[in-house]
Design brief:
alpha+beta, 3-stranded antiparallel beta sheet
Length: 72
């Protein structure tokens, strides 16, 4: 979800931490959780679906991002 050019840059330690924090904040502003649920018979696994605010408003559900979250 991070922009590719920001991933490719190598920054010094402190600057890299600041850049990562800023990128995390950008992602949290752009994306909203659409659904989340636990996977049956898997105590530490959740499925998540995220969508950008603009895509949700335009009902572009083909733009949903899905991933598994492992909590342990």
């Amino acid at each position: 979800m991070m922009e590719r050019e920001r991933q490719a840059r190598s920054l010094p330690g402190q600057e890299q931490m600041v850049a990562l924090y800023e990128e995390e904040q950008r992602v949290m502003r752009e994306w909203v959780p659409l659904a989340q649920f636990g996977v049956p018979d898997e105590e530490y696994v959740n499925a998540r679906f995220l969508i950008r605010h603009d895509d949700l408003a335009a009902r572009r559900f083909d733009e949903v991002l899905s991933f598994c979250e492992f909590t342990e």
